[in-house]
Structures are given as C-alpha cells and as structure tokens.
UniProtKB/TrEMBL annotation:
InterPro entries: Peptidase_M15C (IPR039561), Zn_M74/Hedgehog-like (IPR009045). This is M15 family metallopeptidase. Residues 93-176 form the Peptidase M15C domain. SUPFAM superfamilies: Hedgehog/DD-peptidase. It comes from Herbaspirillum robiniae. Residues 210-230 are annotated as: Disordered.
Length: 238
C-alpha cells in the first residue's frame, strides 16, 4: 500500500491496525468470484459477515479489489465500478481525512450508486460520470443499488449511509460513526476494540429487531420496518 500511494506515514491509522478481509461475491453475470477489502481491524469480523450475507442474498457486486490496484486513485476505482474500503485520502471535495483513511467506510458498486454534488443544479457533478445516464433516478430500485442493502450494512455496524445526505449525496458510501468513536476503536488494543464494536452492533440489533409478546418475530416475507431501522440507526450511532 505504501508503494502504491494508498497509505503514508501521516495516515491517522497505521498499517498495524488494518486488516484484509477476503470474501466471495456474486457478480452481475451470476458468477461467484473472490474479492477483498482493507478495513480497521476492530470491524473486520463484522465486515466478513456483512459480505457473507450479501453473497447469501445474491446481491451483485461488480468487483472488489483493494485500492493499491488503482494506485490509490479513487476516481479510477469508481470508474471500474470497484467496491472498496480503506484509502488513505482526504474526503472528496474536502481537506479532512476521509473515513476511508481509518478503514471505517465502505463504498459499494459506484456505478449503480454515484457520488453527486450540487444535485439538481447547473453545477451538478456525478462520480463516476457514467452513472449520470442511468442511476440518478433512485426509484424503482435497480439491481446493485445500495437501497437494497442498507439494512445489511446497518446490521453490521455501518449505521451511516451517504444516500441520506443532502449535500453531497453519496449513494455508494457506508460508514460506522463519528470520528471520536473511530479514534477510540483505533486507540484501544485490538481485542478491546473488537469487543467495543460488537457491543455497538448488538445495541443496534436489539433496537431494530425487537421481539416480544406484542411484537412477534417478523416473517421473512413481511415488509421491513424501515422507519424503525432508521430511527434505531440515528439514535444509536456515535
């Protein structure tokens, strides 16, 4: 990653606190392939489970290669419709470190889920540009769109979706929480950091999947309670 300009000594999280997660995924032709992402070690077990669930649900992924395959060039990764996580870079359009520089954010299927600035104005910009033709209209949901997987990401602790933002709108982007929480995870020893993140995930699941005498466990075919899901995510993320 150092040789390919994906990480520098200035990065807020060192190499020692990053983990590579390998997983199988189904591509848009229905072929099972192997991919990998690099993430903060504290979240790696949940990320592995997350992609396992996407495979079980047959959610297509166009490709998943670490950013060294693109020399750390986020635009090139998006143009290749590459699902990715760690990249030691500033925020797009800003100077602060991106959550990707902490290994605490994942971008999925950028073509189907573009990054949009100044939406609806003459200054609108769409990244990758090829997404402008078919993926700015978000309903009905098309194959590969993030709207179909928000609940999966939330269930694994990625409680912030850029598709809910107003400016910019970042449909491909999921992240776990505030910089303070991420820094805490990166500062704690790995076993403690993983335990802290597992508690974070468990609190969300307890809220979003409540069952009891008056609220029986949901049938698999029942419509998802997205209002409860979003309320729990907003209340519990930190």
């Amino acid at each position: 990653m150092k040789a390919r300009h994906v990480i520098t000594p200035a990065n807020p999280v060192p190499c020692a606190r990053l983990a590579s997660v390998s997983f199988d995924y189904t591509d848009f032709d229905g072929v099972t392939r192997n991919g990998s992402v690099v993430v903060l070690d504290a979240v790696a077990p949940q990320v592995e489970s997350l992609f396992g669930e996407l495979l079980l649900r047959s959610v297509p992924i166009a490709g998943a290669s670490p950013l060294e395959h693109f020399d750390g060039d986020d635009a090139a990764s998006m143009a290749a419709n590459n699902t990715s996580a760690f990249n030691g870079r500033p925020m797009t359009g800003g100077g602060s470190w991106s959550k990707h520089a902490y290994g605490a954010a994942i971008d999925i299927n950028p073509l189907q889920n573009p990054y949009v600035t100044q939406a609806g104005t003459a200054r609108q910009e769409v990244l990758p540009p090829a997404a402008a033709a078919g993926y700015l209209q978000r309903a009905p949901v098309k194959t590969g769109m993030a709207e179909d997987v928000v609940s999966v990401f939330y269930d694994h602790g990625f409680l912030i979706w850029g598709g809910n933002w107003k400016q910019p709108i970042d449909y491909q982007h999921f992240e776990i929480g505030s910089r303070d929480f991420i820094r805490k995870l990166a500062t704690l020893p790995k076993p403690q950091a993983r335990a802290e993140f597992e508690r974070y995930v468990a609190r969300y699941r307890s809220c979003a999947h409540k069952t009891g005498p008056a609220t029986p466990a949901a049938d698999d075919d029942a419509p998802e309670d997205t209002a409860l899901r979003d309320s729990c995510a907003a209340r519990l993320r930190r």
